[in-house]
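hiii so um. not sure if this is the right channel but i have a protein structure encoded as tokens and i wanna go backwards to a sequence. like what aa goes where. can anyone help
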């Protein structure tokens, strides 16, 4: 798979790359939703696909950092994610407690049930990618999920209709 080949070239050799399901890939501590790439991939002619993938994947493997101080709420968006993604983070936290030397430093992801296997999370919308906001980031901001989710929904409603 080209995605795996490109990603393994972007990370340290010790970084674990594991397929969670057909559309989710865990690269170290980051979960990448490959389904988000499918629409653009299908729009490209075959000879443009691999160069585009090579340009796109680095920002997914090393997304821009979410600020430690919340100066603006404008980049906040609501997002839908499979609950399995959250459970992977929860299990990683358990592993950190069982194996403290592993130093995984993963944090729980606050969410609101949406329906079926989907949950609503907070996303930080950066120019190249969207990152899920975890509980330790909310703690750093001195904010609560329940207070920021309506702000994120308002931000989404205020966006222009073009784009995604």
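sure thing!! here u go:
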């Amino acid at each position: 798979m080209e995605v795996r080949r490109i990603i393994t070239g972007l990370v340290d050799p010790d970084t674990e790359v594991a397929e969670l399901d057909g559309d989710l890939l865990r690269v170290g501590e980051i979960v990448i939703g490959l389904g988000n790439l499918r629409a653009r991939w299908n729009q490209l002619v075959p000879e443009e696909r691999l160069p585009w993938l090579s340009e796109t994947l680095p920002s997914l493997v090393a997304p821009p950092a979410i600020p430690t101080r919340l100066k603006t709420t404008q980049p906040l968006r609501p997002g839908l994610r499979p609950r399995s993604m959250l459970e992977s983070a929860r299990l990683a936290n358990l592993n950190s407690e069982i194996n403290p030397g592993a130093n995984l430093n993963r944090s729980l992801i606050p969410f609101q049930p949406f329906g079926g296997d989907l949950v609503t999370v907070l996303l930080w919308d950066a120019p190249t990618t969207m990152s899920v906001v975890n509980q330790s980031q909310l703690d750093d901001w001195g904010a609560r999920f329940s207070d920021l989710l309506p702000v994120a929904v308002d931000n989404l409603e205020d966006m222009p209709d073009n784009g995604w």
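oh and The helical segments are 2-10, 35-43, 46-61, 83-98, 135-141, 145-157.
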